[in-house]
């Protein structure tokens, strides 16, 4: 590796691969390395054997849950807004030619102990039990204001300066009740906690417009799309883009040490006794553990099930938002259901984001039974903590026995 590069990228997470691809397109000389033998880093998609090895060591997966190759289980599940920035980047860079996508069947919200679909059509809105008739009329006026709002056209602002007016102040002008505010803020604007209420309303309005534009883009039951074979496809797509433009990739490179000169500036990366010189380094936090600070904890549970979630119209892919007030928490929970494109199993991924809450584990177990008609039968449970990141991650792998 006695070569000098413009940029060395460490880690093959989505952010690192996007930057690697864009830098290569810009004709910079890029070397991209990862300690793992697969792409994606913490946001990779694993087959069943890889999943089992990560959580259960050398144990072999039970035969009754299927072949390893039929699974693509995301470690950090996330649906993409159909009209969001990431989708626009994928289209602009041409990375979409390396992968296929599917529309997510539905978006749901947990309210008063039940799961309800977030309406995506006028007819669904009329039938939805989330609001009463008169509340729907008031909410409709607010949604119409958001729909017509154009940031660069003052005639659509109705005299409101959304950069100064808080979200709470804006919504109060339409007389909406707390339940509706909770629905708008968490199920449509997708805020994770209630801090948005005291922040400028412009952000919430933009989020709501993005949600509506994304629903309209594919005329589906939700605003989301998803890579057919898992989120691990995304970093691989940008890695291919980098390679096309001359980027060099090296996987399974252990102990990648960032080197600094006497002035404290980056000068290279050493791995396996060889040093590659460079002018800049881009890396995920795990490669510079002494330069990052833990700011919270993220708990994730992964469950493999043989059926969809009850009360979701047998949907094979859904997102369910559990607002903080519905759970007595300080932040939301999110549930993702993804069906395998090549197998009969359905991969239920509980994706939970919490910051600095000490009783997370107990809340997780209290909530899970409420999502199902019966408590899942657990045949294996494990927890793992990964440090050296800006957030500490804890995961549970839960397998539900097939009926």
From TrEMBL:
Protein source organism: Zea mays
Pfam families the UniProt entry points to: GDI
GO terms assigned for molecular function: Rab GDP-dissociation inhibitor activity
UniProt cross-references to InterPro entries, sorted A to Z: FAD/NAD-bd_sf, GDP_dissociation_inhibitor, RabGDI
Coiled coil: none
Gene3D superfamilies cross-referenced by the UniProt entry: FAD/NAD(P)-binding domain, Guanine Nucleotide Dissociation Inhibitor, domain 1, Guanine Nucleotide Dissociation Inhibitor, domain 2
Family (UniProt): Belongs to the Rab GDI family.
Gene Ontology BP annotations: protein transport; small GTPase-mediated signal transduction
Source domain of life: Eukaryota
Highest classification ranks of the organism: Eukaryota, Viridiplantae, Streptophyta, Embryophyta, Tracheophyta
Record protein name field: Guanosine nucleotide diphosphate dissociation inhibitor
């Amino acid at each position: 590796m006695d070569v000098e590069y413009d940029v060395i990228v460490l880690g093959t997470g989505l952010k690192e691969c996007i930057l690697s691809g864009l830098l290569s397109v810009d004709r910079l000389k890029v070397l991209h390395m990862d300690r793992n033998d697969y792409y994606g880093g913490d946001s990779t998609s694993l087959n069943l054997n890889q999943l089992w090895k990560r959580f259960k060591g050398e144990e072999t997966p039970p035969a009754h849950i299927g072949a390893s190759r039929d699974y693509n289980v995301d470690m950090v599940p996330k649906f993409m807004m159909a009209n969001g920035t990431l989708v626009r980047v994928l289209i602009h860079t041409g990375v979409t030619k390396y992968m296929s996508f599917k529309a997510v069947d539905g978006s749901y919200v947990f309210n008063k102990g039940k799961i309800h679909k977030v309406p995506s059509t006028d007819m669904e809105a009329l039938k939805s039990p989330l609001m009463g008739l008169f509340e729907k009329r008031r909410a409709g006026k607010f949604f119409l204001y958001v729909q017509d709002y154009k940031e660069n056209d003052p005639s659509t602002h109705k005299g409101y300066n959304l950069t100064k007016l808080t979200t709470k102040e804006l919504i109060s002008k339409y007389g909406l009740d707390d339940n509706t505010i909770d629905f708008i803020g968490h199920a449509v604007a997708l805020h994770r906690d209630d801090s948005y209420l005291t922040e400028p309303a412009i952000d919430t309005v933009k989020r709501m417009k993005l949600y509506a534009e994304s629903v309209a883009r594919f005329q589906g039951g939700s605003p989301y799309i998803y890579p057919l074979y898992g989120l691990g496809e995304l970093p691989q797509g940008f890695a291919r883009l980098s390679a096309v433009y001359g980027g060099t990739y090296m996987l399974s490179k252990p102990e990648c040490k960032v080197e600094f000169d006497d002035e404290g500036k980056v000068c290279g990366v050493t791995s396996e006794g060889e040093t590659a010189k460079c002018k800049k380094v881009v890396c995920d936090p795990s490669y510079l553990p002494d330069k990052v600070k833990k700011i919270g904890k993220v708990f994730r549970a992964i469950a493999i099930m043989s059926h969809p979630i009850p009360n979701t119209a047998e949907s094979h892919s859904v997102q369910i938002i559990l607002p903080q007030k519905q759970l007595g928490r300080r932040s939301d929970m999110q549930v993702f259901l993804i069906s395998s494109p090549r197998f009969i199993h359905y991969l239920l991924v509980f994706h939970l984001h919490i910051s600095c809450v000490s009783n997370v584990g107990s809340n997780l177990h209290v909530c899970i039974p409420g999502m199902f008609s019966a408590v899942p039968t657990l045949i294996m449970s494990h927890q793992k903590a990964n440090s050296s990141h800006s957030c500490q991650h804890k995961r549970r792998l839960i397998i539900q026995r097939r009926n």
